[in-house]
Amino acid sequence: MSTTTTSPGPTVRAAALTLCVVLAGVVLVAMSISGTAVALSSIGNDLGTAGSPLNWVVAGYNLAFAAMTLVAGSAADRIGRRRVFVVAATVFAVGFLLTAVGRSIVVVDAARIVSGAGGAGIMAAGGALLASAYEGVARHRAFALMGTMAGVGIAIGPTLSGLLVTAVGWRGSFAVFAAAGLLIAGTAIRGHESRSPDGSTDWLGSLLFVAALSVLMYAVLEAPGAGWGSPRIVSAFVVALLALSAFAIVQRRSKSPVLAPALMANRRFLGWSLATLTTSIGFLGVLVFLPTYLQAAAGLSPAAAGLAMLLLTAPVLLVPMIAVGLVNRGIPARTVILIALASVVCGNLSLTVLRPGNTVAVVAVPLLLIGIGMGASFGITDGQAMSLVPAAAVGTAAGFLNTLRGAAEALVIAGFSASLLGLLGTKLDAGRTQAAAVSSGRLSEQAAAELDAFTWSWQVTQLGISAVCLILSVAVAALILRSRPSS
C-alpha cells in the first residue's frame, strides 16, 4: 500500500488551522454525546412520548456514530480527509437543525441518526487530518490535545446543555449546535487536503458493517424491554452474526477493504486499540449510572451528585497532556497505558463497596482513579496507534479507533442498564416496571428493600465491569509487551 498523499505536506499555518478546526469539531461532538440526555425530559413532555421511542433520541445517535465511524474513516482515505470532514460537519448540523424543528418523535429520532453519522465523520476524518498534518512529537501533542478536547466536551456537555435548555428551550439548544456545526464546516474548507492515491471505496463491505453493527445495537438496546430470549431479539443476534461473518469474508477478498486485514494483524495496533476500548468500558457506565445511585442510595441532591462527578471528568481535562509529556520525556508509552488500565480496573472494583449513606469522600478515590486512567488513554492511545500504520491508511485506522469507542459507549450503556434491570427484577421478585423505576431512582414505600436490591445490583454489575476491564487489560499487556515498543 502506498504511503504517499496526493498533495505536499501542509504549511505551518495550514496545519495550525487544521488543528483548530478539528479540535472545535471534537469538542462539539463530545458535548453532543454527553449533553443530549439533559434535554430528554423536555422533549418527552413537548412531544408527548416516553419509553423506547424517547430513549432512541440518545441511542439512535450513538448507534449511527458507532456504525458510521469506520466507514467515514475509510472514505476519508479514498476521497479526501478534508472533504469528508466538511461534509460530515454539514450533515451533523443538518441533523441538529431537523431535530430542532421536528414535530414528532419519529422525525426527531431520524434526525438524531443523521447527526450521529455526521459526528462519526467529524471524529474519523478529524483524526486522519491530524495524522497527515503532523509527525513525531508534534503528532503526539496534537492527539493529546484532541483527547483533552474530547474530555472537555464530555465534562461540560451536560452543564452547557442544561443551561441552553433552560435559556432557549430544547429546540433552541439543538439550533445552537446546528449553527456551530455549520461554522466549523465553513472554516474547514480552507484547510489542507490529503488522501490515499490508491484504491476505491468498498461499498459492499461498508454496507455489511453498518448492517451488522446496527442490528447488533438494536438487539442490545431493545432486549431489556422485549426479553433476551424473545424471537425478535434472538433473530436480531443471528442476523448480526451472519452479517459480521460476511463482512469478514468480504474484507479478505476486497482490493480496498473498509478495515484492512493488515491492521488487525498488527499486534501493537490491536493492543492500543483494545486499550482505548477498555478505558471506555470502565468510564462510561460510571459516568451515566453513578449519579442516579448517589441520589437514590446516598441521599445526595442532583447538584451534589453532579459536583461529585467532576472527580471523574476533571482528570480527563488535565491528564492527557501530562501523559503525552511523560512519553515525550522518554517514559515508555506502554508503561503509561498499563498504569492507566490498572487505575481503571482498581477504580471500578473499588466502587463495589458503595452502600446507602456513603458520602462523596468514599467515591472520591475510585472516581479519580478511573478519570486518570481515561485521561491517560485519551492522551496517548490514538497517537501511538497511528504511528503504527502507513500514511495512506490513517483514515481507516482513525475510523477503527473511534468505532471502538462509539460501540463501547453504546454497548456499555445498554448492557449496564440491562444488568441493573435484570438483577433488580431477580432480587425484588418484581416486574420490569418496578425494576425500571428503582434503577432510575424512583423508590416506593418499600424503600429499604429496594435500596438493598439496588445496592446489590450495582455491586454485581460493577464487579462484572471490573472483570471485563481486567481481562481486556491482560490482553493489551500481552499484545504490546511482547512486541517492540513504540517510540
CATH topology of the largest domain: Growth Hormone, Chain: A
Shape call: globular
CATH homologous superfamily placement of the largest domain: MFS general substrate transporter like domains
Order of helices and strands: HHHHHHHHHHHHHHHH
Q: Report helical residue fraction.
A: over 70%
Mean pLDDT comes to 81
* CATH secondary-structure class of the largest domain: Mainly Alpha
Q: What's the N-to-C terminus distance?
A: 23 Å
- Radius of gyration, rounded? 22 Å
What does this structure look like?
It is built from 16 helices and no strands. It has 487 residues and is mainly alpha-helical. It has 3 domains: 200 residues, Growth Hormone, Chain: A, CATH 1.20.1250.20; 51 residues; 228 residues, Up-down Bundle (Growth Hormone, Chain: A). Helix 3 packs antiparallel against helix 7 and helix 12 runs antiparallel to helix 16. The N terminus is likely disordered.
